[in-house]
Write a structure and sequence with these properties.
1 helix
Length: 49
């Protein structure tokens, strides 16, 4: 898992809080997309076989 501590020694222009929010959104969308693909495959298996 990612370390949730904000590191202050990085580049001064880097917005770490925004980076953490963007990464959390990416993970959420990846999970939702995976679940959606599995649901479509199950639906196709049920209706087409």
């Amino acid at each position: 898992m990612a370390n949730n501590n904000v590191e202050t020694t990085g580049h001064p222009d880097m917005d770490y809080a925004e980076h953490e929010k963007t990464y959390a959104l990416f993970l959420t969308l990846a999970k939702v997309g995976t679940i959606f693909c599995i649901a479509v495959l199950v639906f196709m298996a049920v209706t087409l076989l």
